[in-house]
Design goal:
Layout (H helix, E strand, L loop, with lengths): L4 H15 L23 E4 L8 E8 L7 E11 L1 E6 L2 E5 L10 H4 E8 L6 E8 L5 E10 L4 E5 L5 E2 L20 E2 L1 E5 L9 E2 L39 H44 L4 H17 L9
Parallel strand pairs: 6-13
Antiparallel strand pairs: 1-12, 2-7, 2-10, 3-6, 3-8, 4-5, 4-7, 8-9, 10-11
Protein name: Lectin
Keywords: Signal
Amino acid sequence: MILDSKFLLGALAFFSGLSSNIDPVNAQTGVDTIPPLDLTTPLWIWTGEPPNIPGMRAFRKTLPQGRSRAVCVTFGIAADDSYTVWVNGVEIGDNIRKGGDPAGSAFRELDIYSVSLSHIKNVIAVNATNIINVDGVILTGVVKYEDGSQTAFVTDASWLTAGAATPPDRFQEIEFDDSKWAHAAVIGPVGTLPWGALHFAAFTGKVCGQSDQPHSPHHPHIPDIICPALLPLPEGQVSPYWDLRHQVDCEIRRLEEALFLCRREKQKLFDRLIIIIKEISSFGGGDICQLANCGNEIHHHLESSTEVPIPQF
């Protein structure tokens, strides 16, 4: 017999049943809340140069991986005298707005950011600038994973630095080659003079991946990132619209990532399906060439989109 479209529809329904057993990618399981940050373990770091040398210095840290995919990083950061921070090549914020504060908030107050993640490898990059006197950067953070687990990380000797060199072009990007960079030099723990005691800036974000830190007037544009931080509302105002839009945008982007990663599994299942159809048709003398062409057409569409049109016979 020659298989008709009704049989193929049934076979594709069988495939749908198989695909429903694939574990979801980036499933949100207990990762929504903002994790607490710890100020007891981070270390002030720099390049190993003597103090009082002005200039910009580049630092990078690949975030720790867990048993499942990382979905969010929340961190607090401060620098003497200023910083700009990126996550996966996207500028997240800076403390330039605090420059000249007589209370020293630029280096005694850690700004908090929470950013969604959708890459396998995730990188934080910092451009820290010393203008005068001592220099240092300090950060404490937590990575959350799709299974609900989390891992803390801090500035320490594991961070990499370009040293006294001018920060290289695109050093913020995930795949930038930092293999020849040196390990950062540790200056001391929280409480080290002249910085003394530190504290966190006010932070009202309640959802992991949603940051409320104001951006510097020097960088008013917030880039379109995987799960972007929203512009802050005026003090005392609340807008459920912005919260909902943020959640929708995040879930759409996570779904797109999940569909992309599932294509390989889909192809394996289609391969199995074509083999089954060929075996079934062989019992009734089916047109194997026609079935093989069907398989080729499915693979062609699989390479070009996540939706596979049903071929007509």
